[in-house]
Amino acid sequence: MTFSAEKPNMIEFRDVHKYYGDYHALRGINATIKAGEFFSLLGPSGCGKTTLLRTIAGFEDISSGVVLIDSKDMANVPANVRPTNMVFQSYAIFPHLTVEENVGFGLRKDPRSKDEKAKAVAEALEMVGLKGYGKRAAHALSGGQRQRVALARALILKPKVLLLDEPLSALDKKMREQMQVELIKLQRQVGITFILVTHDQEEALVMSDRIAVMFEGQIAQLADPETLYRRPASRKVADFIGTMNFAPAAVLSEDASGVEVDAQGFGRMTLSPDQVMGGATSEGNTIGLRPETLTILFDGQNATDREVFGTVEEVVYYGDMTYYDVRLDGAAEPLRLSMRNVPGRPVLDIGAKARLGWSPSAAVLFR
Ligand SMILES: Nc1ncnc2c1ncn2[C@@H]1O[C@H](COP(=O)(O)OP(=O)(O)OP(=O)(O)O)[C@@H](O)[C@H]1O
Ligand SMILES: [Mg+2]
């Protein structure tokens, strides 16, 4: 998942704004997407993901700013000559055509011979795992298979950039997870730039080299999945990506080596500068801790760093995991913890006293 910085830029947005009438849908987008990158646009409904994707494809004019593809300014470059191709939800294939007619659709005006085109279609079908399905009527396919046909139809045109707008959202959970893995493999195999729109944070984390998290027409943070998860730039991003526990914190002192805080329920700690984020809400400064960084300590177990005490308020058993809500002594809100279940270890009941292990090194401060 590491991505070398020397790769050339494939897409560049420079202060892109988009108005629909009075509505300011894109509010100053600045971002660079590298060649060969698997990039995702992630954000809640209505934040402008599809609009931004469509400005790359050329389906949407921008109100101001610049969109560059492969270092060329796309102003006045119509969609049909841009080196991009878009995959929509599964319904964009033609149900009355066969699979190979669907895939070959974009080659209608291609000057190659019939045999050469047939070979290209066969290759594209093999690439998406549909070898031998060419003569099948497209309507006689499952949702996942239709999605593969749509992919093959886009890939056969050999775009530099493949744009995918929530391509898996029509599939059920199992099929979606399977297609996620296949899409990652496919992207590695063909090596072209994939830009995926999704509002599913798990999907974005699993699939992407880097993710732009968008709220209200702006990019709130652009980073690799691990940075987004461990070092979210604001409380809002932290809340959108997975679950994070927040505890009110008072800043006691600070210098170049870090910030000393007193956090409700946790006490005093010093956080290094890389653990200090902006993006506090109007409620004030808070520390943030992910559920898996808090551990219930059972009899005989010692904390590797610090320990605190609390009471179990909720228990949700998931088979492999148990989720607990634990309220620390002196805290206003319970914390969410996730514990891997181990044979022989008890699951605590509601009302039980719990001893928790934690470490300031896993915390971030939003201020
Ligand atoms: N053609 C249009 N005319 C006016 N407003 C539009 C138009 N298209 C989109 N919008 C508005 O712009 C905003 C961004 O829309 P967009 O489709 O980019 O959101 P999105 O992030 O893709 O959301 P979703 O996850 O629901 O698909 C929304 O508030 C939407 O209502
Ligand atoms: Mg959309």
TrEMBL record:
Domain Biotin carboxylation residues, every copy: 167-367
A GO term for molecular function: ATP hydrolysis activity
GO biological process: putrescine transport
The keyword S-adenosyl-L-methionine is annotated on this UniProt entry: no
Enzyme class at the top of the EC tree: translocase
Catalytic activity: ATP + H2O + polyamine-[polyamine-binding protein]Side 1 = ADP + phosphate + polyamineSide 2 + [polyamine-binding protein]Side 1
Keywords associated with the record: ATP-binding, Cell membrane, Ligase, Membrane, Nucleotide-binding, Translocase, Transport
Record bears the keyword Ligase: yes
InterPro entries in the record: AAA+_ATPase (IPR003593), ABC_SmlMolc_Importer (IPR050093), ABC_transporter-like_ATP-bd (IPR003439), ABC_transporter-like_CS (IPR017871), Biotin_carboxylation_dom (IPR011764), Mo/tungstate-bd_C_term_dom (IPR008995), P-loop_NTPase (IPR027417), PotA-like (IPR005893)
Function: Part of the ABC transporter complex PotABCD involved in spermidine/putrescine import. Responsible for energy coupling to the transport system.
Subunit annotation: The complex is composed of two ATP-binding proteins (PotA), two transmembrane proteins (PotB and PotC) and a solute-binding protein (PotD).
Annotated protein name in UniProt: Spermidine/putrescine import ATP-binding protein PotA
